[in-house]
Each structure stands twice: as structure tokens, then as C-alpha cells.
């Protein structure tokens, strides 16, 4: 698998479809995969925080979740064909799981949001087996959730704890699992539950989804400051 080193983080250069095929193949062969969907904020945080970088280093696939990562690779003279977002992977994997009758476990979000997500999946993807779920409010030092997941052996574990919690949680427990695709998908449960509206398709095609989210949630402006810092670090990194 071709990868692009961006601030020390090895980002996959696979397309969305190639990523899906790789993950489905892993499930079909009872293998284990840890997937991170990384935007510039995540890569920058890994660059500046050694502990978090160590957790990301455990991942099998780190996708470019954001046009900033794709542009960053180009700045370094490398190529990533397209962004591969957590939400798009989530939906594509649900479709595949429905076709194949796979099992899933859902971890994260508020209880009400989680229940709406479960209802949506049951209605839209009736062949999926939901073997377990838990909201995002629990004691990290309590290994009972990880033990439950290990015992139920789901094909996919969708972790919607948000950055950086979801990557840290998966990284902490990934060695306890023998199979399954574990993927952090941020606020995807909120979108599926109808609590948050995703940007219209035209905004997505123009790679302006970040701007749409900022307009809808102005409080995100502080997080957006990571982008110019990311670009500055890239220029410094390029000079090495």
C-alpha cells in the first residue's frame, strides 16, 4: 500500500473504493484493521504530541479525511488521489455489511443519539447484525467494554468518540482483539441520527465542507486555526 509521509504520519494514498475493498477483504479473512481518518488537525496533533503519535502509529490505514491533507501531500511533492472521509467510509461499510450480513458494534455519542443511530441502521440496513452498543460516556480505565467487544467478535467496530479520544481508545485496546475493523468516525452518529446536517453535495464536491460546518457551527473557529499552523509546519518539514 502506497503511503505519503506528512509530518511523520504515514497517510494512505488509496482511493475510497480501494480502502473499502481492503477492509472488506480483511473482514472476509478474519483479520484485524485499525483505521484512522485524519484531517490536518489530527496530523498536527500527532506531530506535536508524542503520546498521540504513538497511538496513530498502531494504525494499519490512515486516510486523508480532509482536502487539507490532500493539498499537504501535493505541497510535499507527493500525490493522494482523493480525500477519504470517515462518514463516507462509514456509509460504504454499512452498505457492504448489509449485503454480506456482517456484524457491527457501535461505540460513542450520547445515549439518545446512539439509539437513533441504531434505529436508522435497523431500518435502512436490515441484514446487519448489531451485536452491541455503548454510549461515549464511560470510564476509560474500565476494560469491560473492550472485553465485551472481544467476546462478541463483531466484523466492524465504529467508534464515534471524537478526536483524539477515539484513536486513543482504539490504540489502547487494539491488541486485545483478534479480528474486526476498528475505525474512528468522529460525529458520524450525529449525522446519521439527524442531529447534525452534513454539507450539501455541491459543497462536498467543491471541497468546502469545512466552510459549511464553520458557518453552521461558528464555535469551531478555534479548531480551524489548526489549518494555517498545519501549512506552516509543512513548509518547515519540507525544508528538512
UniProtKB/TrEMBL annotation:
Entry EC number(s) = 2.4.1.187
Enzyme class comes to transferase
Catalysed transformations (reactions): UDP-N-acetyl-alpha-D-mannosamine + N-acetyl-alpha-D-glucosaminyl-di-trans,octa-cis-undecaprenyl diphosphate = N-acetyl-beta-D-mannosaminyl-(1->4)-N-acetyl-alpha-D-glucosaminyl di-trans,octa-cis-undecaprenyl diphosphate + UDP + H(+)
The UniProt record lists the keyword Mitochondrion: no
Query: Which segments does the entry list as coiled coil?
Result: none
What is its pathway? Cell wall biogenesis; teichoic acid biosynthesis
Which GO molecular function annotations are given, in alphabetical order?
N-acetylglucosaminyldiphosphoundecaprenol N-acetyl-beta-D-mannosaminyltransferase activity
What the protein does?
A: Catalyzes the conversion of GlcNAc-PP-undecaprenol into ManNAc-GlcNAc-PP-undecaprenol, the first committed lipid intermediate in the de novo synthesis of teichoic acid.
Q: Which PANTHER family match?
A: PTHR34136, UDP-N-ACETYL-D-MANNOSAMINURONIC ACID TRANSFERASE (PTHR34136:SF1)
Q: What is this protein called?
A: N-acetylglucosaminyldiphosphoundecaprenol N-acetyl-beta-D-mannosaminyltransferase
Q: Which organism is it from?
A: Evansella vedderi
Amino acid at each position: 500500500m502506497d503511503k505519503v509521509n506528512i509530518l511523520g504520519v504515514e497517510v494512505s494514498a488509496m482511493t475510497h473504493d480501494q480502502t473499502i475493498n481492503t477492509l472488506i477483504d480483511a473482514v472476509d479473512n478474519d483479520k484485524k484493521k485499525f483505521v484512522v481518518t485524519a484531517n490536518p488537525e489530527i496530523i498536527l496533533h500527532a506531530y506535536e504530541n508524542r503520546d498521540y503519535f504513538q497511538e496513530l502509529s498502531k494504525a494499519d490505514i490512515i486516510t486523508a479525511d480532509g482536502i487539507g491533507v490532500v493539498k499537504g501531500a501535493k505541497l510535499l511533492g507527493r500525490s493522494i488521489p482523493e480525500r477519504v472521509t470517515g462518514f463516507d467510509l462509514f456509509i460504504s461499510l454499512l452498505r457492504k455489511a448489509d449485503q454480506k450480513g456482517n456484524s457491527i458494534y457501535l461505540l460513542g455519542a450520547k445515549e439518545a443519539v446512539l439509539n437513533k443511530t441504531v434505529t436508522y441502521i435497523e431500518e435502512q440496513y436490515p441484514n446487519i447484525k448489531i451485536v452491541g452498543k455503548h454510549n461515549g460516556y464511560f470510564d476509560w480505565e474500565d476494560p469491560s467494554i473492550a472485553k465485551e467487544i472481544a467476546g462478541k467478535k463483531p466484523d466492524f467496530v465504529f467508534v464515534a468518540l471524537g478526536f483524539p479520544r477515539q484513536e486513543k481508545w482504539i490504540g489502547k485496546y487494539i491488541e486485545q482483539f483478534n479480528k474486526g475493523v476498528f475505525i474512528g468516525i468522529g460525529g458520524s452518529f450525529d449525522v446519521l441520527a439527524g442531529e447534525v446536517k452534513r454539507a450539501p453535495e455541491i459543497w462536498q464536491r467543491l471541497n468546502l465542507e469545512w466552510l459549511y460546518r464553520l458557518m453552521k457551527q461558528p464555535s469551531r473557529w478555534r479548531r480551524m486555526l489548526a489549518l494555517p499552523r498545519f501549512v506552516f509546519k509543512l513548509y518547515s518539514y519540507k525544508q528538512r
